[in-house]
Design brief:
It is a single chain. The protein has 278 residues and is mostly helical. The protein has a domain of 167 residues: MetI-like fold, CATH 1.10.3720. Helices cover 71% and strands 0% of the residues. The chain contains eleven helices and no strands.
Length: 278
């Protein structure tokens, strides 16, 4: 058996430390959330129970946890759908050069390099100057799109740069209209990428703090609510909330991956049937 070089073990150790640094805090919060009723915010643990998870579903003295969760979930869905639709339309539009396309492209992705807190401040100021109400579903929604749309656009541009247009030409040769070609040919082919854009849109919105800080108005989203709780809550109930939100995020990612796997199996089956002449 060939002996592995020392560099392999060194790189493995570095990677292990990186994983520990990345996931260690999450694991720590998960462990501390299972403390007993007399538990505190640090080790050592004081008993093991589900007390703080039960306490989480009772009326809290501070904040509105479940209202904040509903707002974050609803905002995430809004941002996800808008990001997918605009990204697909922009990807289709940018397949052909048009006047000002380069300027429009760089203007769309510039928000990635601007500090998020400045975006939040700017959007909030614009709404105030225009006499519009600062609210999570309006100004917060717009601020978050400046974060999710550039990622969606970059993904769609990469997808359409590799897209084989012969599929569209074949559909048109069979008499399909432009809409039928997009609906029955283009969208099914790029469906896995659309799932990726949707996942980006939802998760980036659901977890976003800085761009929502000054644009959410009087009602907090979940990240803002958790931040507020860190200054008022001194029990492991905040760890229980962190554990549940992490589990929810992982469940959402798993759901999207399952959808991608199902689409992949379906495409493989259709390709196999087509190859057999069915």
């Amino acid at each position: 058996m060939e002996r592995r070089p020392r560099s392999f073990y060194l790189l493995a150790a570095v990677f292990g430390l990186f994983v520990l640094f990345l996931y260690g805090p999450i694991v720590t919060i998960g462990i501390l959330s299972f403390q007993g009723p007399q538990g505190g915010l640090t080790f050592p643990m004081n008993g093991v129970s589900l007390h703080w998870f039960r306490d989480l579903f009772e009326q809290q003295a501070v904040g509105d946890i479940w209202g904040a969760f509903r707002r974050s979930f609803g905002l995430g869905l809004m941002v996800m759908v808008t990001t997918v639709v605009i990204s697909v339309l922009a990807g289709l539009a940018f397949r052909k050069r048009f006047a000002g396309s380069a300027i429009l492209f760089y203007a769309a992705i510039t928000s990635l390099v601007i500090p998020s807190i400045l975006i939040s401040l700017g959007v909030g100021l614009i709404f105030n100057q225009l006499g519009l109400k600062v609210h999570w579903a309006t100004s917060g929604f717009g601020a978050q799109l400046t974060w999710t749309l550039p990622f969606g656009l970059l993904i769609m541009f990469a997808v359409f740069n590799r897209f084989d247009r012969s599929y569209e030409e074949a559909a048109r040769d069979q008499g399909a209209t432009a809409w039928q070609t997009i609906r029955h040919v283009v969208l099914p082919i790029i469906a896995p990428s659309l799932i990726g854009v949707a996942l980006f849109g939802f998760t980036l919105s659901y977890d976003e703090f800085a761009r929502t800080l000054l644009t959410a108005g009087s009602y907090n989203t979940l990240p803002l609510e958790i931040f507020g709780m860190t200054t008022n809550v001194t029990t492991p109930v905040i760890y229980a909330l962190g554990t549940l939100t992490t589990a929810f995020s992982l469940a959402i990612i798993g759901l999207f991956l399952l959808c991608a796997w199902i689409l992949g199996k379906r495409r493989a089956r259709l390709g196999s049937d087509a190859g057999k002449g069915i």
